[in-house]
Amino acid sequence: MNYEQTLAYLENLSKFGINLGMARIERLLELMQHPERRFKTIHVTGTNGKGSTTAMLSAILTASGIKNGMYTSPHLHDYPERMVVNGQQITREEFARSITYTNQFVEQMLQEGFEQPTEFEVITAAAFYYFAAVGVEYAVIEVGLGGLLDSTNVIIPQVSIITNVTLEHTDRCGSTIADVARHKAGIIKDGVPVVTAAKGEPLDIIKKTAAEKGARVYVKEEQFTSKFMGMDNGKQQIFVDAGELGQVESVLNLIGCHQLENSSVAIATALLLKNDERRITVEAIKSALAVVRWPGRFEMVPGSPMIVIDGAHNPDGARVLRQNLDQVFAGREITFALGILRDKDVSGIIRELIRTTDTVVTVQPLSYRAATPEEIAREIEAKHVEAAASIESGIERAKQLASTDGVVCVAGSLYLIGEARQVIFNK
To answer: What CATH code is carried by the domain that includes residue 40?
Structure first.
C-alpha cells in the first residue's frame, strides 16, 4: 500500500471503533515474532499530561545519546506524528510500509477466525515493528485509553508511569474514580517500579496494586517534589528534588503549572533509569527540558491578539487550562474558540473553563463524535456566545471579537487542535 491507500485502509478499520481487550493484539504480535520485546520501554498512562511526559522522556533519552522511539496518540495533523525516533517522525513512506507489513499478519489472524483488529491495534503493532526495525534501544509508549485493556499493555517496561487520575472514559473504564484508577493501575507489572503524581483514592489503589505486584512506587510529594522558581526568557525555572535519586534545577520550555508536575514525573523517571543507564546525566536532562516541544498544549502564538492553543478535553484539563490563563494573562480578556466531543463531559468542561466575563465562539471538531456548535453554545453562560460554521471561521471570528490586548484561546478537543494549528500557522 502507498500512503493514500494506507489512510483508506485505516479509515475502513476505524468503523470497528474502540474494542478493548488483549486477545487480538497478543495474537497479532505473536505472529509478528514479538517486535515489542526487542527494545526496552517506558509505559505512560494518566488522565492528563501523559503526552507531555512522554515527549519529555523521549527528549531526555535523545539528549543522552540513546536511540529511542516515541509512540503517542491521537495525532494532531497526520498519522506519522504517532511514531517518532530521536525527535524525527516516521516518513509517510515508512509509515505505509509498516502498516502494509502488519496487515499481512492481520489477514492471517482473520483466516484463523479472530475478530478484526481495531485501527489502534494495527497502528500499535506497526509502531512496535518499526521501532524494532530501525533498532531503537528504548521506546516511550503512551497508553491509548485506560491501561489495563489497552493495546499497549503487552509490554514489560523498565518503569510504569501514571501521571494522574481523574474521572474519564466512564463508558469504557467504569463509572467511578476507583474504576478508572484500577484501569490505570493495570499497567503495573511484577517488580517494575512505578512513578506517579496521583492523589487521594486513586493513589491508594495504585499503591495497593503495586504492593500486590512487588513494585516500588515513587510518589510526588512523598519520594519527589517540585518547585517553580520563576521565569527565564519565557521558560519556567524549575527545581525537582527526588531524594535518594538526585536533584535537578533546570529551565523548562513548556509553560503552565501542570507542566511543572509533568516534568517532575519525567525527571524522577529519568533519575530512576539513571541508576542502570549511565548515559543519562543531569546535564542531559537539563538540555532536553530546555528545548522540548509538545504542540497544542498551552502553545502560545504571539500576535495581536495573542493566541493560545490547548487540547484540554476533560474537566480536569479545562481547570488547569483556566488556571494557566488566569496566571499568565492576569487581567486580560479571554475569547474562546471552543469545540468539544459529544461523548465528553461537555457541561463539566464548560463549568471549569468559561467565565461569565468571557466571549465564546463555538466550533465543531473534526470527528463524528463532535457536538455541534449549537449544542455547545446552549450550555454556555458568558458575555457573548455565538456558533460558527467552521473551525476557520470560528477562529477568525474569535480574533475579531477579541480586544487588542486580549487573548484568543482555542480549546476543547485534540481533534480540534490539528485543524486549528493549520489555520493559525497557514499550513
So the answer is: 3.40.1190.10
